[in-house]
Design goal:
With 806 residues, this protein is mainly beta. The two termini are 52 Å apart. InterPro entries: Beta-barrel_TonB, Beta-barrel_TonB_sf, Plug_dom, Plug_dom_sf, TonB-dep_rcpt-like.
Length: 806
């Protein structure tokens, strides 16, 4: 009791902490039975010992976005995802954050089973996500989701590694008949960024006791561009330079969302063998292709203007091929698939047995066009296969749940236990030889497919890891109003040894209208094989000049040369406590405090500048050259993230005027870097970790149902934030951005019983963040807006949607 009350009361003072909030869509969801964060089969949102938010298909449908991550960002205030451009893979698999923590610290489940990670290791991204490797949520079509549960609490003791920030469990639709078709089209106010989206869901019977539920979607997004003309192009025009009839590329560099085309399929099925046993099978297949613009190379000051002698005689300059300069086109092809099957039964004794096996695979294949390997001279191809990264995961699970009836307990004691075996393999496949070959002219110009040299045979390989785990937990109502739970999990990794994590939860109903809940838990996240072994060289631009930047495995000679050490697991300690109010007039209010301490966090180091002496000592550094940059993965810092979730729900009965469902959620989240190694990460990274995301988020949502009409209004508040530009001495120069309100609206009309038409807008006020100040230098490469903008930088968006139910 002391622990429960003390932790809950700790949520009230806010002087040293911050707040965070996520919200169920409306008060009706408080009675939903949940399966995330508990082994009991009778838990609802309202009596959960940990905060869990539940979202329905209707919640997901009332959004303007065409990908799942943007939908969740609108619903969950502490969930953020950036819009990255000209940023390698981060623009292809956008990394989200939950409570300011990276995507690989949030566990993703499908039907309660672990969903595999993306093959893409985030080399770019922002301060919170750089270096992470999480699941690709966009592979899950919104129309396939029956219920989304977001557990806002650490759960490593229950689910294993990756559950430090929380858990997202996507339950798939399981109807055996009926279905729906949704068609949506939209466009940005600016006239670009048109999106087309078709989704289909259908339930079919499988014999007399089974079902097959199929969901499919097709998505096509046109690119956006919010850049301006680059200063080097402006200077070339002013100087009278003549690019010839080809002119300059238009735009000379694109800053905006990528062009996307995707097809995705999810299948969920099951057969009841008896009244108490069933078999189930579900899985997915997805393919998407994204096209991204890389940095522009100007024909005078970049290597294009370098003249060198050909071995066949005469002189040559790449400016003769690209007299107006050029920018490479970067393509990411993603193939994602998984399959999970299992058997679940309930014995006469009450013992529930769930045995399952799953396999997941994600492949990201890279291609470049409209570029060359400059070192090959005039014989260079202009398009390249750069290589492939693949993530494969196999999971075997046995879960046991058994209710024990004990006279002195107010409820059955739910005992649970189980075992898990998991094997994952990260694979790098080399690109075309021409994409990495050092040609005869390497002394004059860069080596490899310009923009991103291909993965070499030295980079390539298969990097496996396995681990097994055993867990046990117990949960019961000790007395009528007091519920307690305990979980313990032991894991053994083939490369990082073993760990034991625990979690204690409790909930006490103080009065008819007030309950207190609390949890304390530890967490653990082992570095992924991808983080340990990824290798990539890309071209970045500094002050308008191209610079090769290489990220090398921690075990490589280059990384060791710059001080790399073997990666260690991240560990965490979480404290949470909250109050649950059932107020007069059916107002539901929850206030939940959390404090998450993470040690030895993994990220990418600051860059090291390569000198001629470095290349003599490590000849492999010739791939980035003198003036190039090197970084690697490291355990560089510790953080403490504090917050409070505040959520209020109310449904108003307006008699003949229908019903109004209202939700208010507030999110204040604050991360502090408590310790860091300045030789590994710089002050600029520290400032971004602490201030790059708003500390304050709030959403006010109302849905008014009246007759055949349904009207939605949403106001989202984003607090002030800061973007550091890495001009650092004893302090770092950064730009502060003002708070902003973003408004969304939608009107739906039931044309027929089975046909609903909707029209709506996202960011209807056409709000843009402030432009980056010219003295920060990014205007030189045409960038107007910061990638860190929590509400994007595309402005307003309008859409129309038709939904047909059958």
């Amino acid at each position: 009791m002391t622990l429960l009350a003390g932790t809950a009361l700790a949520s009230i003072p806010l002087s040293s902490g911050a707040w965070a909030a996520t919200a169920p869509a409306d008060a009706d969801n408080l009675g939903e039975i949940i399966v995330t964060g508990t082994r009991r089969i009778d838990r609802s949102v309202a009596d959960s010992p940990s905060p869990v938010d539940v979202f329905t298909p209707e919640d997901l449908e009332r959004q303007a976005g065409s990908d799942t991550q943007d939908l969740i960002r609108t619903l969950v205030p502490s969930f953020n995802v950036g819009h990255f451009s000209s940023d390698d893979g981060s623009g292809i698999v956008r990394p989200p954050t939950l409570r300011g923590l990276p995507p690989d610290e949030t566990l993703v489940l499908i039907n309660g089973k672990r969903f595999h990670r993306s093959a893409l290791v985030q080399i770019a991204g922002d301060a919170q996500t750089s270096g992470s490797q999480g699941a690709d949520l966009n592979q899950i079509p919104a129309i396939a989701i029956k219920q989304l549960e977001v557990l806002r609490d650490g759960a490593s003791a229950q689910y294993g590694s990756d559950a430090i920030a929380g858990v997202m469990n996507f339950t798939l639709k399981d109807a055996a008949d009926g279905g729906s078709v949704i068609v949506q089209w939209g466009q940005d106010y600016a006239g670009d960024g048109a999106t087309g989206h078709i989704q289909v869901n259908s339930g079919l019977p499988l014999g007399d006791r089974g079902f097959v539920n199929i969901s499919a979607e097709y998505q096509k997004n046109d690119p956006t561009d919010r850049g301006v003309e680059r200063s080097d192009v402006t200077d070339l025009k002013a100087s009278g330079y003549n690019p010839g009839p080809k002119g300059y590329p238009t735009p000379n560099q694109r800053w905006g969302d990528n062009a996307v085309e995707a097809e995705r399929l999810f299948i969920n099925s099951g057969i009841d063998l008896t009244d108490n046993s069933k078999i189930y099978l579900f899985g997915n297949f997805g393919h998407s292709n994204e096209k991204e613009s890389f940095y522009y190379r100007d024909p005078v000051s970049s290597w294009l203007g370098t003249t060198f002698p050909l071995t066949s005689g005469g002189n040559f300059s790449w400016a003769s091929v690209y007299p107006g300069g050029y920018h490479p086109w970067f393509y990411g092809d993603i193939l994602d698939s998984s399959i999970t099957g299992g058997y679940k039964t309930t014995l006469k004794s009450g013992l529930i047995i769930d045995a399952s096996a799953s396999y997941g695979r994600d492949e990201v294949r890279y291609n470049l066009t409209n570029t060359v390997n400059p070192s090959l001279g005039p014989s260079s191809p202009t398009q390249f296969y750069v290589g492939t990264q693949t993530q494969e995961e196999t999971d075997l699970n046995l879960d046991l749940t058994y209710p024990v009836h004990i006279d002195w307990l107010a409820s059955p004691l739910t005992l649970a236990g189980g075992a898990e075996y998991r094997r994952e393999t990260y694979t790098i496949t080399p690109g075309d030889a021409a994409s990495y070959t050092s040609g005869a002219y390497a002394a004059y110009v860069p080596v490899g497919s310009n923009g991103m040299p291909g993965f070499t045979p030295t980079d390539a390989g298969q990097f496996p890891r396995s681990n097994y785990a055993f867990y046990a937990d117990a949960e019961a109502d000790v007395i009528k109003d007091l519920s307690l739970g305990f979980a313990l999990r032991y894991e053994d990794f083939s490369d990082f040894g073993n760990t034991t994590n625990w979690k204690v939860t409790g909930r006490y109903q103080l009065t008819d209208w007030l309950a207190v809940r609390s949890s304390v838990n530890t967490g653990f996240r082992a570095p992924t094989p991808g983080q340990e072994n990824v290798s990539k060289v890309t071209t970045i631009f500094q002050n308008g000049n191209p610079v090769e930047q290489g990220t090398y495995p921690v075990g490589s000679a280059i990384a060791r040369y710059y001080g790399a050490q073997a990666l260690k697991p991240e560990t965490s300690f979480n404290i949470a406590g909250g109050l649950v109010f059932d107020l007069p007039y059916k107002v539901n209010l929850t206030v939940d405090y959390y404090n998450i301490k993470v040690e030895d966090r993994i990220g990418i180091t600051s860059t090291y500048s390569v000198t001629a002496a470095d290349i003599v000592a490590q000849p492999a550094l010739a791939a980035v050259g003198v003036g190039g940059q090197v970084n690697y993965f490291a355990n560089g810092f510790d953080t403490r993230t504090q917050g409070v979730d505040i959520v209020a729900n109310k449904t108003f009965d307006l008699d003949t005027a229908g019903e109004l469902h209202a939700t208010a959620a507030m999110n204040i989240n604050h991360t502090v870097v408590t310790k860091y190694n300045p030789t590994v990460i710089g002050l600029g990274q520290v400032q971004d970790l602490q201030n790059e995301s708003p500390h304050y988020r709030a959403t006010l949502t109302g849905v008014w149902d009246i007759g055949k009409f349904s009207i939605l209004g949403r106001a989202s508040y984003f607090g002030a934030w800061e973007d550091n530009v890495s001009i650092c001495g004893t302090t770092c120069l950064g730009q502060n951005f003002d708070p902003a309100w973003i408004f969304d609206a939608e009107v739906s009309y039931k044309v027929l019983d089975d046909l609903t038409a909707s029209i709506g807008g996202q960011n209807v006020g056409d709000k843009y963040p402030a432009k980056i100040r010219p003295e920060f230098g990014t205007y030189g490469v045409g960038q107007q807006y910061s990638f860190s903008s929590p509400y994007g930088y595309d402005g307003g968006y309008y859409y129309v949607r038709l939904k047909y139910d059958f």
